Amino acid sequence: MKRIGFYIALPFIYAVSLLPFRLLYVLSDFLYLLVYYVIGYRKYVVRQNLRKSFPEKSEKDLLKIEKDFYHYIVDFLLEMLKCVTVSEASLKKRVSVTNIEVLEDLHKKHKNIIATSGHYGNHELLNLALPFVIPYRHKAVYRPLSNKYFDKFFYNFRTRYGAMMVSMAEASKEIAKIEDFNYAFFLVNDQSPPPERSYWTTFLNQETGFFTGLERFARQYDMPVVYMCANRVSRGYYNIRMQLITEQPNQLPEGEILEKHARILEKAIIDDPSIWFWTHKRWKYTKANGEIVPVSYKR
């Protein structure tokens, strides 16, 4: 059945991918109405996340963020399909970089780095564009899909311009490799981790756990850490702002790398909450009086 589903979906994927960006967003405007007003995909998750993250905002303000987010998530999904056939020239036109000297300086020192971010902006488009806009080759950690046909398809288009994709299971082995080139090891760190093995901090007004691999890898391999914040300039156009978290991870107090990561991501979300993935059940667990407690997402 998985194979049949893949081959049924394939013509639709290519039909969308071959659309010019201008028509892509006409389609997105239509699909937004369907997704938001008819399907209402995970509205109960989005609303709970927004209310707890922004308790100071009015219902009117929260509703605006909600609608802007759903409009963006449809843009994101169609942009992701566009990535299947997008050209090098289009990527260079649509993705720019601020503070590139942060990476150039580290690259001149022949240092491998850890690049970190969140599910903020279109990471699929940025993954394809990075080989053209930064001096490093990059290895991006990802979670393989359960459908092996889709997994192979997405792996092939994600790597076609030089990105190296690393499954979560292989991350520890891959970061330890000695290569004949310098690389950026890319980790997206804003999903719900196992609570007992998390770094805990206050994030968007809630006690929140973060995966610890970012800091553990940085300390173990003495790798500088750079935050790449992908801001949306306009539809289909993104600017990546480079921000150095630390060049010497082992000189920082324990937890400081993850704390800085959380603060940079939090500020980006507050500045433009519409392009973070509010449909994620990000707070499956929280802390109350120092104890880890499960969170219920109710319809």
UniProtKB/TrEMBL annotation:
Location(s) in or outside the cell: Cell inner membrane
PANTHER family: LIPID A BIOSYNTHESIS LAUROYL ACYLTRANSFERASE, PHOSPHATIDYLINOSITOL MANNOSIDE ACYLTRANSFERASE
InterPro entries with a match to the protein in the record: LipA_acyltrans
The organism's place on the tree of life at top rank: Bacteria
GO molecular function terms listed in the Swiss-Prot or TrEMBL record: Kdo2-lipid IVA acyltransferase activity
Lineage of the organism: Bacteria, Pseudomonadati, Bacteroidota, Cytophagia, Cytophagales
Name of the protein: Lipid A biosynthesis lauroyltransferase
UniProt EC number: 2.3.1.241
Underlying gene: lpxL
Chief place of localization: membrane
